[in-house]
Amino acid sequence: MNRRKALVAALAATALGACAKSAFPPGGPLDTIPPYVVVAAPADSSTHVSRTSGVEILFSEGMDPTSVRDGLRLYPPAGRALFDWSGRRVRVSWERPFAESTTYILLLSGAARDLRGVPMGRPLTIRFSTGPSLDRGRITGVLRAKTLPTKGVPILAFADSLGPRPDTSDVGPSYATETDTSGAYALTALPFDRGFTVHAFYDQNRNGYMEDDVDILAGYPGSVRLTPEHPVADSINIVAVNQLAPGVVTGSVATRDSTARIRIEARDVADSSYVRRVERIGSGSYTLPLPAARYRLAAIRAPVVEGTEGLTLRREEPLDVAAEGEYGPIDFDFAPLEAPAPAPEGEPPPEGKE
Question: Is the C or the N end of the chain the one with fewer CB within 10 Å?
Fold first, then answer.
């Protein structure tokens, strides 16, 4: 199987759950109770597991086999997984025997769903070893984001020999997990004396492929190396930025005329034909979303009388806008340039005026 496909099939299970729809069972109300794992063998933290052993899982109710297949992965891999279903129970075996004295991590995505489309919501992690003990390495952290989700997001650990941004087109992760409802994650039972880079993966178009121009692989800056003296790496926090999300410019305009039509516009410095704008009537606030680029900002007040000139205020310095950035307040005040409103008929002009 193409490694690129394998990577995304392993880690886009969140998208599968997001697309699931619940249905009314015959003669009953909508099912909203998430399924869960009643028991699994081997149990979590088991040791001396047979190299030819499989994994058996009993669910609380009937499961959608495709969502379980797509959401279940073993690290390190042992070849293609084979599924044998019997009601609520599934036995999983692999093409190759487990390696000697090796710690394995079985991950079942929280997106795995029951027959009515209700997802588990929480991932299942089973750690077991074919030797006398489990690896003790642990990496923990929190995923933070402004416009992207932080719950149920795949977290991937790659060998740091692949560089700070691994080429995921043909290389899969060494280990993986998912974030919880608060965005926290924990990669556990990791080996010592190996370096890892840690990333959050977003399959934006949910097509099952990692595409650099569409999908997002947000990484922790730097590699993480665990040793017997330092078995735990805490606060390996990841900030995910959606490069396709706009930056936002905010501010206000001021005018003496409550009926004045004012246009706030941003013109791309590199391509002056590209302009984004927003309009309002009279004084007040504005919000202008802008794709990442460098812009010159201006506010243009339409002519009061047709055939006469309007007024334009320009911001002197160009504004560098980044994805998800927030800029402001950037205000435009037309009042000093406008003629004072005429005095009501019968009232004398202001002192010093004739």
Answer: C
Tell whether pTM > 0.85. Answer: no
pLDDT tens per residue across span 81-134: 999 999 999 999 999 999 999 999 999 999 999 999 999 999 999 999 999 999
Q: Would 226 be classed as within a structural domain?
A: yes
Query: What is the DSSP track for 260-316?
Result: -EEEEEEEESS-TT-EEEEEEESSEEEEEEE-SEEEEEEEEEPPSSTTS--EEEE-S
DSSP string, 134-195: ---EEEEEEEEESSS--SS-EEEEEEGGG-SS--TTT---SEEEE--TTSEEEEEEEPSSEE
Amino acid at 348: P
Same domain, 196 and 267: no
Residue 46 tokens read as 């088991």
Whether 284 maps to a domain, the answer reads: yes
Within-domain flag for 148: yes
Do residues 118 and 231 share a domain?
Answer: yes
pLDDT of residue 112: 95
Query: From the centroid of its chain, how far is CA 78?
Result: 29
Residue-range definition of the domain harbouring residue 315: 247-337
Final residue in a domain of this structure, among 179, 211, 240:
240
CB 232 within 8 A of CB 140: yes
Same domain flag for 158 and 257: no
Q: Is the pLDDT of residue 143 over 70?
A: yes
Rounded CA gap, 157 and 38, in Å? 29
Q: Is the same domain home to 298 and 187?
A: no
Q: Structurally, how many domains does the chain consist of?
A: 2
Chain segment 82-97, per-residue pLDDT in tens: 999 999 999 999 999 9
Task: Look up the CATH number of the domain holding residue 251.
Answer: 2.60.40
Q: Using one digit for the tens of pLDDT, what is the confidence trace for 20-74?
A: 444 444 555 677 899 999 999 999 999 999 999 999 999 999 999 999 999 999 9
In a shared domain, residues 131 and 40: yes
Rounded Cα distance, 184 and 181, in Å? 7
Are 188 and 84 in the same domain?
A: yes
The answer to whether residue 340 scores a pLDDT higher than 80 is: no
Model confidence at 19: pLDDT above 50: no
